[in-house]
Specification:
Layout lengths: L2 H5 L5 H16 L6 H29 L3 H25 L6 H29 L2 E2 L2 H24 L10 H25 L9 H4 L15 H35 L5 H11 L1 H12 L3 H26 L13 H18 L3 E2 L1 H19 L2
Amino acid sequence: MSSAARKFPVLDWTVLVPVAAIIALAFSWGRDLPGVAVVLVALCLAGAVLAAVHHAEVVAHRVGEPFGSLVLAVAVTVIEVALVVTLMADGGEKSASLARDTVFAAVMITCNGIVGLSLLVGALRNRVAVFNAEGSGAALATVATLATLSLVLPTFTTSKPGPEFSAAQLTFAAVASLALYGLFIAVQTVRHRDYFLPVTAEHDGGGTGGDGGHAAPPTAPAALFSLALLVVALVAVVGDAKAVSPAIEAGVAKAGMPQAVVGVVIALLVLLPETLAAVRAARRDRVQTSLNLAYGSALASIGLTIPAIALASLWLSGPLLLGLGAVHMVLLALTVVVGALTIVPGRATLLQGGVHLVLLAAYLFLAVSP
């Protein structure tokens, strides 16, 4: 990490860009934006994503793994949940499936897109990407369980017609999601923290920061400053994404694509910080950090979104569709099976990265052309 980052200069781009993105959010919130304004807000969103990645790495360098990836995953997901609930409250019945579409998109993007890119970059660097099978396998098993309980079972339950949970079933799913997510965090950060550390940590000092762990960690004030700017940047990312969402919805409708594509685009936007951070970690031969980000984001997306939606359903009108269709269930099952075969050896080549990316491409193509 550079000395400029440790001194957190006020005129640095990593400070100015999040502030500019928040100002853009304030001026665009609740307004119908013309084309030029949409482009400006989108540029601010992109800059806020880059700033969020920078500040997440500063915080990660200070607190170490796996806490660094946990901070970014939880921060993004909390704000993502707020975005989904807000869009559902504003959208009426047409947003009945928005939570399902966004959560499933997040699972597919993280478990195939981020994992695939990370393995590809790691294998290109060292021929074989190496990681801890114990920690990554536990994370994948938890993702598979939460996804099945929350997104598959509603298709088959009979208490209510359609792919919906009854009130009691939704409560159970929410409690189970929170319990499993809390248990995973306890295992990841306390009881078996070593399962989630990069395999090369003993060779590079165990850091997770900007210079591959060799630079001295930032001071506590610098890390707190970056943490505050991380939150600001993430609020700007999700808020600006909401500001441009009417343009996204109009473009999707004009192109004749399914409404579910809106959830896919939202998930792609809000997961950009994790994606960039994971790829940068893989380039530094820290593939385990990348997998922590990928599976941690998937877990947070389900484990926090489902309870929040369950609470929001008390005042949201209209149905809450959570159950996946047959095509998406097949893709989820294939993702879990391929993910397990990738994780078990603790080593992966270009082939495994390519397989995961093809699965993501299949999901995106079938979302546009079901």
